[in-house]
# Entry
Amino acid sequence: MDAPSMLPLLRPVRSGNAFEETVERLLQAIKLGVVPHGEKLPPERELAAQLGISRVTLREAIRALQDAAFLDVRRGRYGGAFVVYEPPRPESGDLRRAVAAMGQGDLEDALTFRMAVECGAAEVLASAELTPAQRATLVRRLEDVNEAAPEDYRRLDTAFHLSIAELTGSSLLAAACADARLRVTDLLNAIPVLGPNIEHASVQHAAIVEAILARDPDAARRAVAEHLEGTAALLRGFLA
Amino acid sequence: MDAPSMLPLLRPVRSGNAFEETVERLLQAIKLGVVPHGEKLPPERELAAQLGISRVTLREAIRALQDAAFLDVRRGRYGGAFVVYEPPRPESGDLRRAVAAMGQGDLEDALTFRMAVECGAAEVLASAELTPAQRATLVRRLEDVNEAAPEDYRRLDTAFHLSIAELTGSSLLAAACADARLRVTDLLNAIPVLGPNIEHASVQHAAIVEAILARDPDAARRAVAEHLEGTAALLRGFLA
DNA sequence: ATCCATTGGTCTGTTTCCAGACTTTTGACG
DNA sequence: CGTCAAAAGTCTGGAAACAGACCAATGGAT
# Structure
């Protein structure tokens, strides 16, 4: 009997370097707008605990981001590590460059993964009975995106998508969706935020929420798939 | 504007202790039958590289598993770390104990996650155009399960499920499915392998493969969902 | 009977990372 | 204007993990 591969089970135990990994994490958090421009990161001790690393290591990472001008660190009470980052207006050519920077295989992998987990999350959520508070949160996030100023759009779009995963109550699923989103951040940030696109996305977002609130898992899944397919197709177009 | 949570993005950077993590990994690999009874693990140097850890750390983990009688380590050429583990016949009460050992929230989380990623994988695979080799692999895995001796059943069942994820070509998705499986291994191993259950599963497996080969994503997803729902319902029953 | 490639076993020095105590700065508040 | 709590900054000793070289055993091949 030939042994089935099941190779992924012997994948790496640790991601590598704690310092570099932390820099990457924080940078993604900044670029995604988890902590918006002008806001500050949690206190070092608290953040170190959240990230499961020592304060020393965290400080090295913060220092690196400070040197790279992503953070402005101020001491004293009411001090902290303040985010200094406003999403740049993407210029033509940025997208092509961003896509090229990622391997073709990696892009395909990331898009596939994202499609699977986000559709899954939507379906799960649409299958669940939501509390009024959960419904309110979902609707609120949708409104946030729709009313967003252009410079806030990506951030609130991210928040909307992730809130779907979070509301399922499965932290594993939420982490997977967050991970999927991280892997395409740079690409999404390189896509200009244009009127027609926003309008299109807005309709699709509404369809997603409607399906979830109507407890129609099938429709929710299809709505998410359609929404993501648009972006995926756009990005794939730059591989030619 | 209230900041959206997006908390999962600041999740831990490293899983914790490299040694313990490695022990856990190897133990899962053994319990899942990635390396069946009598076979040996890859050479230390090679395995350490695969796992992304140093040989010293790996050896500590191997030593622990040796002490726990899961491995028989022999030196010299043709030596290695041989697996000494045959899945125990589950006894009544094992399942209840296993379910209780995991938190209720964790169980729900794991089941939700598994449902999402495995359904997603099946749908993705059914959407893709498969090469003859891929089709053959899938069919072969199905046959393997169907012809399995009772003591090999879980192992080949795992191989079947994971091969669906692997065939999508997305390593992220494959890793997610492997992870999901890991989280319910102990529970699955505590479920007796009974004739009627196998027969039932067999029909569902066939439906899954059929849908994938017919390139019917919707049917594939529904087939997987139905299949997993059975197990999930059984396990949830022990939470009462 | 011998060789020797392959594998586990051991040792040493280095780097990374951690835990925790302590110091300094700051600005809102009384 | 001084207080003081909350934050960043600093220091030290130790544990964990690594990299790489080297040793020892084993058993099939010659």
Q: What stands out?
A: Residues 104-127 of chain B form the longest helix (24 residues). Chain B touches chain A through 70 residues (CB under 8 Å).
